[in-house]
């Protein structure tokens, strides 16, 4: 019985909770990878799921700004490409 | 477009995670996203309540084990 009890104790301690933000719904693999790298460099990355293109971070501010910059860059690129074509 | 969802990332053994999913199924009030075998995103304000419920479930299980082995 003691073994069983201590087993549950160990299991219970193994439950880990981290407050933060789950970022998902990336259209592009490259964007996902860049954001993961940025979050890792900032030391705010808790875990990532490559197959689902999801990551969990403890802080969102800087990562959010970075994502906006990535998006703006893409829009700029799109404009230029459109200009050339038109 | 990517979006961010605030919450508590709960990481546990698949067995414990299964219990959390079971608790959630009773009222469907804790889980935001079932990510994988060991990870779930839980509502931040509900996390303390979930922890208490999990604790109770685990204690019940221990008691059951004790009862069945004392017979």
Write a concise synopsis of the structure shown.
Chain B: InterPro entries: TFB5-like_sf, TFIIH_TTDA/Tfb5. The complex is a heterodimer of chains A (86) and B (71). Chain A is of the alpha+beta class and 86 residues long.
Overall geometry of chain B: elongated
CATH architecture of chain B: 2-Layer Sandwich
Mean pLDDT of chain A: 88
CATH class of chain B: Alpha Beta
Strand ordering within the main sheet of chain A: 1-3-2
Total beta-strand segments of chain B: 3
Tell me the major beta sheet of chain A: 3 strands, antiparallel
Number of domains of chain B: 1
CATH fold title of chain B: Alpha-Beta Plaits
Report the order of strands and helices of chain A.
HEHEEH
Number of helices of chain B: 2
How would you describe this structure to a colleague?
The complex is a heterodimer of chains A (86) and B (71). Chain A has helices at 2-13, 29-42, 61-85; strands spanning 16-24, 45-49, 54-57. Chain A is α+β, with helices and mostly antiparallel strands and 86 residues long. Chain A has a 3-stranded antiparallel β-sheet with strand order 1-3-2, covered by helices on one side. In chain A, strand 2 (45-49) and strand 3 form a beta hairpin. In chain A, helix 2 (29-42) packs antiparallel against helix 3. Chain B has a single domain (8-70), classed as TFB5-like (Alpha-Beta Plaits), CATH 3.30.70.1220. Chain B is elongated, with a radius of gyration of 14 Å. In chain B, 54% of the residues lie in helices and 27% in strands. In chain B, strand 2 (31-36) and strand 3 (39-42) form a beta hairpin. Chain B has 71 residues and is α+β, with helices and mostly antiparallel strands. Chain B has helices spanning 14-27, 47-70; strands at residues 3-11, 31-36, 39-42. Chain B is built from 2 helices and 3 strands. Chain B has a 3-stranded antiparallel β-sheet.
